[in-house]
Amino acid sequence: MTILLTGATGFVGRALVLRLLRDRHDVVALVRDPARARRLLGAAPTLVSLADAAAVRRAVGRADAIVHLAGEGIVDRRWTAARKRALHASRVDLARRLVDDLAAHPRRRPVWVNASAVGWYGDRGDEALAEDAAPGAGYAAELCRDWEAAAEAARPHAARVVRARLGVVLGPSGGALAAMLPAFRAGVGGRIGHGRQWMPWIHLEDAVEALAAAITDDALDGAVNVVAPAPVVNRDFAAALGRSLGRPAIVPAPAAALRLALGERASLLLASQRVVPAALERAGFEFRHRELDGALAAALGLDAGIGFADADPAALPDAGYVAARAPRYTLTARTELDVPLAEVFPFFADAENLAAITPPQMGFVIETPTPIAMGQGTTIDYRIRVGGLPLRWRTVIEAWQPPTGGRAAFVDAQHRGPYRAWWHEHRFRAEGDRTVMEDVIHYAPPMGPLGRVANALVVRGMLREIFGYRAQAIRLRFGAPAALQPAARRGTVGA
What pTM was estimated for this model as a whole? Predict the structure, then answer.
């Protein structure tokens, strides 16, 4: 299918692009800044500028499905009158524009999938809220109602209109969890207000699977709550996050202080919404992450098979780079994918795709002109951010072995950048129609004798986050082995 997508560079949108590419859909992303979008999304999606009305209309005419995820951030700025107009324009006005473009083409599309949010329900205490519950009150509820009404206007032009009401999406390097982590990692996190308000959550992988199912499964139509089947109250969420991080979670955020600091936005944190995924469960959707503790472990990269050890001199490669720079530590990671090596290796052989599996806060930008011919001796210059500081990174491909005899490998080494040593071995091994990827990184932090302290306090945690994000992005793009995936249902859920 040709799938037209808005919001592709957002937290959920980036993950959905990878998931749709796995199923070989042709993804066309409507974006405000094509250059930035290319840096974030990699080489595969087709990009169309929202500023080019004629190009947008042509893209709508070619699309088989439309997925509208776009929306300005609702928490990050105070809800002034101007900000509310921007929130409305990015959600409701854009939906209306796309419906008008649909109406200009007589062909009826299979589906329109529209993002909304559990804010539709307002503050509802302990009431269990399935999709047939009445809408709530307050600004967030009103915005969701307008957003969904704009989507329903597409029904004359689409066989189905799915209104996906997302809960709090948990995943690496983005969303609500990214905002919570600094306080919780510092040991000063805790409940919000009295902590008894219900908090509907869902792991990013399940949210993306649900959206992918909404595109292809005729059983999903109308409102669909995209939440896990086990909502928790806020104080229990705080306790679970503290456990996952090995930190206390006993410092509350008083409701009065939140209202003073956030104004009307505080309602998003203090409202109680006991939302249940009735439509998904009726359709037989299988959740990978049904319980909160496991979902948090996955979101934090604690289940990504990442290991750290002191570098073993006897196991270090025999290379001049390694001898000269003396790595101190070794990071290992293993990822199993449910596709053959012949499909996996070309993705990693395209340097532009590195952006799609790199956390967005790293600000990854390739400075070397693309396309880049990969091979031994290839030099690639990047810009990145580490701890918010802009840095330049030059990597040299020290070894390059394309697939042969069921194996492939390459090595990239940092010749300029933040590390004293960085030697990254990418190993690929075919196991029938599956691929096993192994990453082995021999590295040494900067700061000389203080590098051991830096590694313990900062570097190791940062690398775990980066490679945890990478592992999830690769699973989304290629699929994990069947034992690790949601069970397939009529061929529409899962790969």
Answer: 0.91
